[in-house]
Amino acid sequence: MRRTASSSGAQGEVILENPEVVQNAEKKMAYPTHTTNGNEKVKGNRRRRSSSLMYQEPPESLEQQSDQAVLPNLNAQWVNAKGAWAIHIVCILLLKILYDIVPSISQETSWTLVNTTYMFATYLMFHYVRGIPFEFNAGAYDNLNMWEQIDNEDQYTPAKKFLLAVPICLFLVSTHYTRYDLMLFVVNLLATAAVVVPKLPAFHRMRFTFFNPDLAHPDSDQR
């Protein structure tokens, strides 16, 4: 705190200045905050829009549909190839062997780790990553995740039925071998729900915008 004194005639005047108060006042003057239309808050040059946490991906344009029909989608066709279904069972068995050879891990913990690892990996593969790793169709699948690309978005095909049944069966097996422990049951249930729910037709093309709310209205800045 700084103190300055000045005199005017016989009367003295003391002015107290707090540097923190002065800095806060300068910031408010430099970055004014006000609201517009009741839904938008403007702070300086940044604008935040209130948006929903979930929205549905719009259908592709005619040009994108034409690009999708030009060449086969190698990113999603492998799920119908020979041995593609068996690789899931092999991966689960390898995970079980891997966790069993680690010392001081019980069977209950081992099955829980197998379940959560498989669910996390398949969620990243089928539901989190969008687009394809190949550059041959002009980005026709950039808005779709792998689950939506399988079988041209048809529901309840043999491949999708199998991919839906595997996490459910693994959850039941994990619950049995964890001896229905409440805490482990909750962990396995949440991990399984995170993979099964996005596969349901009711959540087809649905997007959650917890980490990027601007995705809820991708065209809002162009209006």
From TrEMBL:
Subcellular location(s) per record: Membrane
Organism whose genome encodes this protein: Extremus antarcticus
Region named Disordered: 26-56
GO CC annotation, single: endoplasmic reticulum membrane
Main location: membrane
Keyword Oxidoreductase: no
Keywords: Membrane, Transmembrane, Transmembrane helix
InterPro entries xrefs: ORMDL
Membrane-topology annotation of the record: Multi-pass membrane protein
Domain of life: Eukaryota
Segments crossing the lipid bilayer: 182-200
Gene that this polypeptide is encoded by: ORM1
Name of protein: Sphingolipid homeostasis protein orm1
